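Thread amino acids onto this structure.
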């Protein structure tokens, strides 16, 4: 569906928004504004990664924003995010997306008639800023989940599917970090093309803010996974230590029992009246000796 958000007037620009574009609509707009056919083709690819292209008299941007309706188990860039394609020139702005999004409506409401956003370039900066800010809620949620699992791990509380949940958090953090890494080139090129523009500086600050947050989350989940693995290894070592100490008591006792269990006729102590109590006393003495030895070594 093609919508004219802002009509062109003197000393102004025209903003056309296309939601759920058909090939006919795109070709009509492309012919009117002389858009490159390769860029138009990229608009129809829902899995395209972020990029920016400078043409003769226009610029083309693909940016990805977080899909608040995505499935909880989503773990790829294409499933977690949606694509926003932007063409802009001196006197026009064209935005293309597959379904309705609040980014377009909110940006149009705030900045179409705003004196501080007079050009298509200014509006593009605001659109990208709005797209970046869609990651705020999911990143804050991931941060809260990390704090939750961290406290439970240190308190040694049992959590069903803990390792699976930590992996899902790690996967989302990695995908977001990778996406911002790819998108950084877009912000850098826009800054280099117009360094003195206040809107692009605001965009740069917003991008840097979330980039730092993503790095912190990425490092935190890695540290948490390492801590979890270390604590699991420590618990395993404690179990092995207990079993080793436990077996140390029975090893000499088993040896003695093995000897007297052979029942040879040439064993005189078998017919001695005090033979049985003596062997029991020996076994008890060995057990006490081992216990005292372990106690002095600090193993018990």
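Threaded sequence (300 positions):
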């Amino acid at each position: 569906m093609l919508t004219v958000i802002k009509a062109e007037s003197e000393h102004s620009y025209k903003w056309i928004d296309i939601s759920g574009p058909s090939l006919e609509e795109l070709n009509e707009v492309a012919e009117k504004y002389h858009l490159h056919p390769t860029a138009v083709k990229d608009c129809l690819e829902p899995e395209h990664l972020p990029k920016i292209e400078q043409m003769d008299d226009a610029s083309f941007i693909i940016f990805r924003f977080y899909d608040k309706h995505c499935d909880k188990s989503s773990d790829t860039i294409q499933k977690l995010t949606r694509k926003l394609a932007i063409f802009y020139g001196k006197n026009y702005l064209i935005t293309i997306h597959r379904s309705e999004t609040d980014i377009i409506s909110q940006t149009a409401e705030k900045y179409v008639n705003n004196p501080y956003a007079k050009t298509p370039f200014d509006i593009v900066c605001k659109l990208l800023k709005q797209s970046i800010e869609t990651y705020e809620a999911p990143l804050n949620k991931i941060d809260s989940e990390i704090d939750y699992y961290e406290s439970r791990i240190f308190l040694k509380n049992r959590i069903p599917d803990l390792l699976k949940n930590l992996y899902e958090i790690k996967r989302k953090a990695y995908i977001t970090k990778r996406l911002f890494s790819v998108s950084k080139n877009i912000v850098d090129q826009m800054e280099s093309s117009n360094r003195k523009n206040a809107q692009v500086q605001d965009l740069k600050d917003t991008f840097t803010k979330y980039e730092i947050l993503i790095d912190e989350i990425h490092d935190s989940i890695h540290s948490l996974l390492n801590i979890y693995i270390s604590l699991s290894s420590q618990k395993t070592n404690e179990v092995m230590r207990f079993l080793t100490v436990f077996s140390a008591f029975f090893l000499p006792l088993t040896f003695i029992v093995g000897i007297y269990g052979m029942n040879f006729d040439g064993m005189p102590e078998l017919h001695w009246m005090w033979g049985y109590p003596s062997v029991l006393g020996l076994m008890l003495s060995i057990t006490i000796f081992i216990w005292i030895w372990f106690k002095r070594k600090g193993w018990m």
